[in-house]
């Protein structure tokens, strides 16, 4: 046995058991989470979707490439990792072979492989250089909260970059030496190896033989060291990311919240027992195994943090930090989680104390996550949209909210009135049910209010929503929509007092009980109205929260409907020539994407088509728009909570709009109208916005341009 082989085997004997021990620990920790049968079904029953997610997100690097420069750099490094597996294999074969010229047996001297190996190694070095520059320019010490790496383990990231660099230079060292000793399996195609060989050639044959041996051992040693480093560090994502992407919600973890489950089964509120059932996430072990997998997969890239409106405005919430805090706690609690009942009593006192830490609690309570963190979330979805490894932040944050509300009764007190109003009156403002039809009396045409089944000749049921029916600014948008439908000859009816809140604010706040109550009531109403899916009837929703809840959350409770947002219908009516915008509106308009219409439901184009169809308007996009749109601050039930810390989110958003000096800020959500309207009023009062500036729904813009009865535009203008 040669010395080379002995050294190689010793390196393997040290590194592989270390790596295997860690992999075993990680797999035990991840699988200690709650069952998630739906995630397994996602893969087994929707194999095509699972494969396409691997092709598009993992191999295609779709999400990473949204940020072009770091995305390309990451693609170089990732493809180097894949392609250079052939080089590591060659190095091992050489180590184990008795033949001096042993090399990669399968492709055996195949020139294109040699070229590809050299090319990707160079591109990997380019990628490393880009990463180093990005990290250098984005140092938390320099940029503070503006750095996406704030809170990340930056030291570890530099070590990983150096390790990858070591993989590449050792590779070129032994390949260059191989050329000079005559055992290199490739020719001139391996252009870098040949160049290195020309530098090493003057050293002579014996020295090159020695360098080949040293290079191979270094290469194997570095790769083994890297393997150990990966499984013990955040670079675990190299192995976990494909799994996390495979088991993530499809098409993404946006839109509906997941139903509450205990032990993998849907929670039945009638039967559930708080002592034995899981109510949301109250302990780290209440996470499902997919939740645990999320924690291990985070790369600490900080993309989520950089897009979070709460973080951007000085709140304590960073979606990255939530994941890292949960991860660190899960790792620290692992000895307890992985121990049997009998073993637990023998654990060290500090482990037992750690096991009792409240997951959500203030610093005085020794909590893992501060309550202010979970209540600061607007559920805007920017974190989920950005995360390159499909981590499902909203599910974790709302899981903790559910536990806080349902078990601890600990939530911001200002939400109590809203929840009481929902339970007693079916709307967050606590207004009388019959006020829901007030807006109809302000129109000069009839809008049928159903008291039974929808008539045969009426295709649409217009779900007005609480804000649309009861809030003065939102009512103007509702009247504009009704006016446009009337002009276009679309037959529609409304539920009037029969409509109740969809339950979205309760659900987003974590009160699944109130959500269930309202949702079941509405499902019964909608079914009695005869508008269930398959009847040919459609539900129009002008509030994106209602749109999301009815179309994507009610199916969880057996209510299935064909739901269309008003912007989709109005854009179609314009395209079909049923609405003809003829009156010029000479205004510069900027459009604000409501998170629950855009990011959560991917409706980006119809509102913009409506604006473009209005003659005279000049549309200009804000810097943060479409998938990168910035929240108004109202989602996640934040509309009903005080904003005590940092800058107001709506103010931050409106400043971005004001930078364009628009005449009109348009949107397609009653909550956004209220939040942005409040921010504009504050700016006007401070003399920082022109008095004529207004926030309106795109329907209000359209109604001004469509030839209408005299006076109609005034009725529906802001
Ligand atoms: S959903 Fe929005 S507010 Fe909540 S953590 Fe994610 S980015 Fe931040
Ligand atoms: S959660 Fe996702 S986006 Fe955020 S730091 Fe981790 S990997 Fe990056």
If you had to describe this structure to a student in words, what would you say it looks like?
- A 4-stranded parallel sheet has the order 4-3-5-6.
- It is mostly helical.
- The model has no long low-confidence stretch (mean pLDDT 94).
- The termini are far apart.
- The chain is globular, with a radius of gyration of 30 Å.
- The chain is built from 33 helices and 10 strands.
- Bound molecules: iron/sulfur cluster (2 copies).
- One iron/sulfur cluster (SF4) binds next to helix 14, helix 19 and helix 20.
Short note summarizing the structure:
The chain has 718 residues and is mainly alpha-helical. It has 33 helices and ten strands.
**What small ligands are held by the chains?**
iron/sulfur cluster
Proportion of residues in helical segments: 40-55%
What is the helix tally? 33
Radius of gyration: 30 Å
Strand content: under 5%
Mean of residue pLDDT values? 94
| End-to-end gap | 87 Å
Oligomer: single chain
Strand arrangement in the largest pleated sheet: 4-3-5-6
Coarse structural class: mainly alpha
Major β-sheet annotation: 4 strands, parallel
The global form is: globular
In total, the number of strands is 10
What ranges have pLDDT less than 50 throughout 5 or more consecutive residues?
none
Label this structure with key terms.
54% helix, 718 residues, 4-stranded parallel β-sheet, single chain, mainly alpha, binds iron/sulfur cluster, 10 strands
